[in-house]
Amino acid sequence: MSDFRTGRLPVPGASLNYEIRGSGPLLLLLQGGDGNTARGAGLAERLATDYTVVLPDRRGLSGSTLDDPAAPVTVATHADDTHRLLAALTDEPARIFGSSYGALIALTLAGDHPEQVGTLVAHDPATICLLPVPARDRAARDLAALDEVYRKEGARSALRKLAELVHADFSDTEPDVVPPAPREPGDLNDLNFFLSRDLPEIRSSGLHAERVAALATTAVRVVPAAGRGSRKIWNYDCARALAALLGTEVTEFPGGHSLSTHPAAFTARLHEVLADDRRPAAQAAKQH
Questions:
Q1: Domain AB hydrolase-1: where (predicted)?
Q2: What residues form DSSP beta bridges with 55?
């Protein structure tokens, strides 16, 4: 195992739990869904050979506790948490990999604090706000259908619906990859929080096309990315829309929406994309 340590950061209304692995330039991982430090540990460990990998629990998930469980939690809230976490760890622009909801948070952060972001890889971004109206309506209907299943049938049924919407496919994996085991009752807390608190925020995000397009005038390098297996879902359309706003192309990754079907190939691709960093300055993390 790489060099490993944990930390906590008090922020307004919450306390953030995070893990740090490895050494080198700082790389922040922002997961989607109910991705917590346990779920992201494999990717973080593989990347820690070359980076100081920071893996947080998003506010409300696992170790990142809320002072008031009923207080609103928005995309802007998560972006501000991320801003504060980066400010505590480094004085330099950071590399960020954000997937799905995590990509939405990362793009919001980049719009608010471009000085904190060097390279941002936005994988299968949940940025329906950037889609043209027909595609945006389709995505909104999908999210509304998912919300209805959750409210009527609970988290397990909603998870199956979500897998259907993102075309989750564990029939095509690298050798030795095992499909996710059914969730245990005690493992549903984070999923419930995501479905009830975070998911509705995708439809009301304050991220707009003008703010994203403005990133092209900053030093932030945004890499719109998507899984090859995501071509038929709206997250890929979001990556295309992001690329069009920035005058670039979609960078494809092995697998689909999930980060776990092709772990070795996915990690190699991310290493490759991050290594193509046009900014000369290296980013070193503060030591804690």
A1: 25-184
A2: 19
What's the pLDDT score for residue 281? 36
> Cβ distance 209 to 191 under 8 Å?
no
Tell me the Cα Rg of the chain. 18
d(CA 157, CA 147): 11
Contact between 206 and 105 under an 8 Å Cβ cutoff? The reply is no
The residue count for the chain? 288
**Residue 118 three-state SS:** strand
- Give the pLDDT confidence score for residue 283 in this predicted structure: 35
pTM of the model: 0.94
Write out pLDDT tens, residues 223-264. 999 999 999 999 999 999 999 999 999 999 999 999 999 999
Residues of 225-254 as b/e, b for ≥16 C-beta within 10 angstroms? bbbebbbebbbbbbbbbbbebbeeebbbbb
pLDDT category at 1 given cuts 50, 70, 90 is low
DSSP state of 115: G
Neighbours of 109 (CB within 10 A): 29
Residue 127 is predicted with a pLDDT of 98
Closest CA to 209 of 161, 244, 245, 174: 245
Residue-range domains of the chain with CATH: 4-275 (3.40.50.1820)
Q: Which residues contact 207 (CB under 8 A, 6 or more apart)?
A: 75, 104, 107, 108, 111, 127, 129, 130
pLDDT of 180: 81
